[in-house]
Amino acid sequence: MGSNNKVWRARAVLQISVMACLALSMSDRKSSLVGGIVAAFFSGLLLTRSSVTLERIKGFLRPWHVAVGILFCAGLGRSFYERWVISPRVLNLAGSLGLLPENLVLPCALAGAVAAVFSVSVCLACYVALAEEDFRKRGGDGSGFLKAFLPLGIIYTLGISAILRANFNYIDDMDRVAQGYKNWANYSRFISEALSSVIHMDQYLTDVSPLPQLIAAALLALTGSLLLYVVHERTSFSVWEILALVPLGLNPYFLECLSYKYDAPYMALSILVAVVPFLFRKRKPAVYMFISALGTIAVCTTYQAATGIFPMMVVLLAFQMWNSGDSLRNTGRFCLHSAAGFVLGLAAFYFVIMIPVDTYVSAQLDFSLKGLGDLLQIAYFNMKRYYTLIIREDFKTFWLVLASVLAVGYVWAAAGSSRRGRWAAAFAAASLVLMGLLCFGVYPLLAKALFAPRAMYGFGVLLALLALCAVEISGDYLFKLSSCALSLAFFTFSLTYGNALYVQKEYTDFRIQAVIGDLNDMEVFLGEEPVVVQISGTIGQSPVLAGMPQNYNILNRLVPITFREQWWWGQAGFYQFYGLKNVVRDPALDLTALDLPVLKDGMYHRIRGGENYILVELK
């Protein structure tokens, strides 16, 4: 009887902790509140059927699991506080109770964060314990894994060395460096929000680069090592296989992610958490589905562009199962369990966790259309746009040729090692097409799809998977050398891109300082009255970049012009980094519509002005 009480006590404590974690993740939408209640009910139902005991938890729970849990839940608690303290529901409730909103929300945030630590720590410990057990069963002693992790880490770090040297404040970085804010929660990236306090060791995010980018490189190396293990199901790997994974982190699209001083580690983490569930695919179906759902939620709360990686991996692994002679029944079960976990995770994120946005990208599916046919048509046009960018604008011809060779190598390798006879090549080609459709995740289905390079790194992951499979062909060096050539091409491009950032930064600083030098001599800035300054035109690319051959069109999309009109990120540096006295920005005014007299006309810009208004026309 006493042991039963201990079991139920352990389950009750864990259930309360899970409910606290759910509460910290919810927004004030009705669907979120209802979904949270449903999730709490089913988690309780699962716990009643589990074999959880305090003794088993103590057996694999380690102090570092608890430490990570505390730090993570502290971030979740703060994010919860910042969301709910401005919630209309809380404002109304606080007003009826005669309390300040912060006095109502703060105790809830603290209590929830403390209570959630237990479930987060246990979940992390289970992940680690199950992965270690699986690794030991396959005879891994860690040496093979380390031999993959270290060279990949070195390659990725060297690949981004030019980016680190450039020290470029990439778009959002400008505001974060100047103001130290987070703001990821507005896009439902709650893990990013929570972990940022851990990496920066403060709620005010100072610039600690290159630490976040180095962490990103380490996470990419870890992901690559796990991919080798998952795809090949062994713990020793060849040099060719390790080199085949260079496009995973150094493809042109993920280079934009690595350019962000603040966002880089969370974008890299999004790939890792998409791969981790496959370590558990041979566990009990309920365990695999649950971990797949958690992995999908983790992807969506770090960076949603990685939502295509999990289904793409499912297609690859399912094809490998069938191709190696496994039964259709087992292959179908794997696909079904994977789909169930993925859909469950997406549903939990969409209905419970997500905060809807409608800015440059929409977090909403386009349900305004008449039917499924219209939605598929939108997906078709978005997919067409993605591949038009890849084929006609972003990728050099040489890259496309190498990618095509690797696609052929993937089919060739599948046919050569198949136990399915003549159908192997056809099904390999079909799986390749399906992975190509899935690599962009849910983005093609959104009401406003995102076409920035950072939204397209799923295609880089696809190239890495194709290379990884193609180099397995023994004795055929065409595909091995093609894989190595693509890796080398991306490695050298990453250095080119990093140096391009540096050149553009130097040119931008020169142009801004030239404008400030001319403004500094004007009498209007000597008084105490605020002066409205507007930027018109653009400095364009540095002459060095403008003179590059046109086969580097991808640089036009990757290197931002941060001194230009209209776009805030084209003006943030000018207004925030130079301490301009009495200078203000008023987006409501359009000084270009006024016929202001010319005060100064030079080689790089023209300055017009009148009273307390100054218009800078960039040339």
Shape: globular
Side-by-side strand order of the widest sheet: 2-1-5-4-3
Report the count of strand segments: 5
What fraction strand? under 5%
Largest sheet: 5 strands, mixed
How far apart the termini lie comes to 84 Å
Return Rg in Å: 27 Å
Note the total helix count. 26
Which blocks of ≥5 consecutive residues have pLDDT under 50? none
In terms of structural class, how would the helical and strand content be classed? mainly alpha
Helix content: 55-70%
Mean pLDDT, all residues: 87
Structure in words:
This protein has helices at residues 2-25, 30-48, 54-60, 63-84, 88-97, 101-137, 143-159, 161-166, 172-179, 190-200, 211-232, 239-243, 246-250, 252-259, 264-275, 285-300, 309-323, 328-353, 372-394, 397-416, 423-438, 457-470, 477-520, 543-546, 554-558, 572-576; strands spanning 531-536, 583-584, 598-601, 605-610, 613-618. The protein has a 5-stranded mixed beta sheet with strand order 2-1-5-4-3, covered by helices on one side. Strand 3 and strand 4 (605-610) form a beta hairpin. With 619 residues, it is mainly α. The mean pLDDT is 87. It is globular. The N and C termini lie far apart (84 Å). The longest helix has 44 residues, at 477-520.
